[in-house]
């Protein structure tokens, strides 16, 4: 197995940090979008000053970015990366709640004077865990056909769904996109439907995914054939193939579809 390239690794960190669209990270970190594109495509070695701007936004230490980008000698880089991997900088909401419960247990053992605080914290945790639904942002359109331009990261509106519809461990990442086109009708996805997307740059064979192709976004079925060749397929009006390793990048997996009935 070959070592993961810096560009591919950095894309994963960007998505984990909540920057689905790289242009939003470029704006937040005051970095030229073309510089970020070249870095993620491994077309050039990022400068240390660029990495320093990006570090706080992708929640990765400056030293680790230097190490992974090849600015440190091999031994030093290895030590920096090993140390960084021991630090969990991207905790999910449920993990935070779990740690909070452990802290409450420790407080309870140490002193009985904190019962009021403990009860208040327990009530807050119970309220969060038992919410019947959550509202997720609709971030724009995605093509079911010819890819369309990236949408702005600001939500046009929010849509409530049952909390159980979001897999545990992904509560901070889901978002909706509105489908535009007819190439996924055989997968039960029609023009105007809303798809719930879990941000992820990996997918299993047969899953419906959202992919970036030349800066544009499209909804397709991820397929691996008997020869191990990866492709993105339309599900209606004849299949079309795109090789992800050369032309596309997976940015999320479709979790569920909310059907359009009439107009909205």
What does the model show?
This protein has about 260 residues and is of the alpha+beta class. Strands 1, 2, 3, 4, 5, 6, 7, 8 and 9 form a nine-stranded mixed sheet that branches. The chain is about 35% helix and about 25% strand. It has three domains: about 5-85, Orthogonal Bundle (434 Repressor (Amino-terminal Domain)), CATH 1.10.260; about 95-130, no CATH class; about 135-260, Umud Fragment, subunit A, CATH 2.10.109.10. The protein contains nine helices and nine strands.
Topology (SSEs and partners):
Blueprint lengths: L5 H11 L5 H8 L3 H8 L7 H11 L3 H8 L4 H12 L7 H18 L4 H15 L3 E11 L4 E2 L7 E6 L12 E6 L13 E6 L8 E6 L2 E9 L5 E4 L10 H4 E11 L6
Parallel strand pairs: 1-4
Antiparallel strand pairs: 1-3, 2-7, 4-5, 5-9, 6-7, 6-9, 7-8
Helix pairs in contact: 2-4, 5-6, 7-8
């Amino acid at each position: 197995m070959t070592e993961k390239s810096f560009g591919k690794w950095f894309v994963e960190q960007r998505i984990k940090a909540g920057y689905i669209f790289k242009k939003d990270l470029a704006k937040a970190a005051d970095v030229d979008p073309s510089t970020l594109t070249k870095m993620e495509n491994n077309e050039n070695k990022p400068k240390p000053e660029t990495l320093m701007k990006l570090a706080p936004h992708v929640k990765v230490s400056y030293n680790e970015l230097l190490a992974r980008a090849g600015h440190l000698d091999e031994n030093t880089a290895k030590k920096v990366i090993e140390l960084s991997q021991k630090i969990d900088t991207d905790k999910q909401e449920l993990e935070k709640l779990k740690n909070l419960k452990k802290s409450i247990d420790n407080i309870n053992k140490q002193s009985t004077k904190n019962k009021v605080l403990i009860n208040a914290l327990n009530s807050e945790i119970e309220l969060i865990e038992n919410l019947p639904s959550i509202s997720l942002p609709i971030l724009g359109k995605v093509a079911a056909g010819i890819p369309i331009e990236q949408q702005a990261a600001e939500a046009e509106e929010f849509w409530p769904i049952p909390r159980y519809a979001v897999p545990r461990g992904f509560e901070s990442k889901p978002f909706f996109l509105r489908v535009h086109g007819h190439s996924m009708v055989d997968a039960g996805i029609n023009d105007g439907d809303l798809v719930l997307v879990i941000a992820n740059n990996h997918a299993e064979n047969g899953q419906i995914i959202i992919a970036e192709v030349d800066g544009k976004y499209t909804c397709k079925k991820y397929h691996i054939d008997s020869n191990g060749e990866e492709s993105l397929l339309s599900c209606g009006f004849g299949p079309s193939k795109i090789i992800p390793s050369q032309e596309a990048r997976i940015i999320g997996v479709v979790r569920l579809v909310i059907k359009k009935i009439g107009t909205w």
